[in-house]
Amino acid sequence: MRFLTAGESHGPELTVIIEGVPSQLPLTEEDINLHLHRRQKGYGRGRRMQIETDRVRITAGVRHGKTTGAPIALHVENKDWKHWEKIMGAQPLTEEEESEVKRKITRPRPGHADLTGAIKYRHRDMRNVLERSSARETTVRVAAGAVAQKILKEFGIDICGHVLEIGVIRSEGTAFSSIAELKARTEASEVRCFDPEVSEKMKLAIDEAKENGDSIGGIVEVVATGVPVGLGSHVHYDRKLDARIAQGVMSINAFKGVEIGIGFEAARLLGSQVHDEIIYSEEAGFSRKTNRLGGFEGGMTNGMPVVVRGAMKPIPTLYKPLQSVDIETKEVFSASIERSDSCAVPAAAVVCEAAVAWELASAFLEKFGSDTMEDIRQHVENYHEKVRRF
Ligand SMILES: Cc1cc2nc3c(=O)[nH]c(=O)nc-3n(C[C@H](O)[C@H](O)[C@H](O)COP(=O)(O)O)c2cc1C
Ligand SMILES: C=C(O[C@@H]1CC(C(=O)O)=C[C@@H](OP(=O)(O)O)[C@H]1O)C(=O)O
């Protein structure tokens, strides 16, 4: 599967075109809206989320609730567009209109794409950069991830993203027994953390950052269960699925690190403390005693739950001024802003879930075929039987 997104943060809408989805997959707008709604929730977001009510419109690739195998086109409207039509319109402006909307953005925010994007594309108005570098685009990445999750669910693969850390506040270990429980607990929490006591501390840390005009980051974790052995491959660098997942996660706005399983911690431990011992039983076949390696060996899934973590830096737009330099006057200034999120880690957990789901579903279809659900199902059943008898 592949997808392409288009659209600006304050333009009319965001679009994603998805190619390679098998025919006969049940798919409705509600299946996608569910995840768009989850992405919009979450403690620490700014005023923009009060303006938007993200709903998808399917315009291609689905008939009467089922995919046809043709490219799928999904659109999400920006309600904020009505305030930006003049500034963001595609038509050339008359002289009169131009004088009305001529205020250019010339003051780059440290940590955002503004200055580097302006230099690279030679824009004197940095709106041309920030409109596309905005994480508003993650709306349609979540829509694509929702389609991926529909495919995975058909084959018993369940996935959930949650918040592990906000700043220095962290929840210890994985205190849940199933993805269903994890989902229920994180959906009940405003910060998407499964531990209610830690959730409250996280909210206080977000409040404190906001009161100080600051922003705060954190770490999210995505867990997927029911993933069959052998997605991805050890034979070539660009077929290693852990590497592909790492790219998907790192491409989320403000993500600065990715771990699979215990990740960086593995470098500080000895081999005997890291590698998961192999066990066998007639009913379950081969398995592992532990899952420190997060379900991957040799770039392939090994049948254990897939565990991926992503680190998000604090939001760059701050109410507390940081020093920057105006690109026209070259004068030093301290940035003042109109609105921003102070923490988007809970929302980013949903985006990260979508990124991991997308890579897992793509690798799944590469292994089992991608024309029609019926053929894939036969292939999967046959494979499961062979794995059991290996
Ligand atoms: C869900 C989400 C919401 C975000 N909201 C904001 C925001 O309100 N203000 C801001 O400056 N950055 C926000 N960001 C982060 C910027 O989009 C990101 O820092 C920017 O695109 C620069 O890219 P980089 O940080 O990956 O280098 C958000 C990121 C995510 C994932
Ligand atoms: C719109 C979303 O996030 C936006 C991401 C973002 C940024 O710079 O990345 C900046 C903010 O937008 P605005 O400047 O319009 O307030 C966030 O609200 C969204 O997540 O749907």
Automatic annotation (TrEMBL):
Its EC number is 4.2.3.5. It comes from the Bacteria. FMN binds at R132, S133, S134, N253, A254, G298, K313, P314, I315, P316, T317, R339. Signal peptide: none annotated. The keyword rRNA-binding does not apply. PROSITE patterns: CHORISMATE_SYNTHASE_1, CHORISMATE_SYNTHASE_2, CHORISMATE_SYNTHASE_3. The keyword Methyltransferase does not apply. GO terms for biological process: amino acid biosynthetic process; aromatic amino acid family biosynthetic process; chorismate biosynthetic process. NADP(+) binds at R39, R45. GO terms for molecular function: chorismate synthase activity; FMN binding. Reduced FMN (FMNH(2)). Its cofactor is FMNH2. Pathway: Metabolic intermediate biosynthesis; chorismate biosynthesis; chorismate from D-erythrose 4-phosphate and phosphoenolpyruvate: step 7/7. Homotetramer. This reaction introduces a second double bond into the aromatic ring system. Belongs to the chorismate synthase family. This is Chorismate synthase. It comes from Evansella caseinilytica. The lineage of its organism: Bacteria, Bacillati, Bacillota, Bacilli, Bacillales.
